[in-house]
Amino acid sequence: MNTLTISATASVSAGAGRRAWRRLAANRLALLGLLLIAVALLASVFAPWLAPYDPNAATPMLRNGPPGTDGHWLGLDAQGRDILSRLLWGGRPALLASIVPVAISVLLALAAGLLAGFYRNRWSALIMRVIDVLFAFPMVLLAIGLATALGPGGWAVGLTIVFSATPYLTRVVYAGVRAERDKDYVEAARACGATSADLLLREILPNVVSAAVVYGTTLVGGMIVFQAGLSFLGLGTQPPHADWGRMVSEGAQVLVLGAAHVATLPALVIVTVALSFNWLGNGLRDVLDPRD
Residues in domain ABC transmembrane type-1 (predicted)? Predict the structure, then answer.
């Protein structure tokens, strides 16, 4: 009987997975976003093997060379470094400093939002007041403060994104828990003797986690732009290491010299990857919508 139950459950899960994939595949923008994200991640992971040149090796006589210059497909920057190689390597800090902090924020938000939304006591009120305080910190000022305390680099950017993203995600989870906690299925489970932990983890969590995942996926796109902005200001990855935002900053200094590709190419990559996460998030919202 247990074997039959497990098999039936696995069959239902597989069927639900196939239906979810078909719905996601039907959304062309979401599918395109997923494909572009996969390409960006793979290109960053395999940058040591894909990059045609050392990203920090300079050829001064070819500075600001246009795309196609002597085998440099995307041209060279103001110091004569291969732009394609730097784009491949620059994806590592850009994606790492955006995806990982948002993932941490989702976990923190799920914990804080579940506790604050389920219980009706002073501790839940205290959690939400702390979240309100975090809302009061402007992201750029927080980044500057952390960069001053920790020094500019990935740690400051990552902590800034965690502090900035967690309040928004917590609000999403909190609102979902408040909407679910008094519904009939929760009351039925409580009447059957379910503990508070069972209600939170088995009944309510599955119904609010999708909203956090969808919002977090969309938020990654904004955080990629934010991370690039911090690098543009000199608070992110430090030279000579490649970073998309710093590449835009360095390219902006040579726009007057007619080398528009130096800043335009990394800017296009930033916008494309950020939009891809937004497209995927919108697609996941339609797939995971419990009302459908």
Answer: 95-281
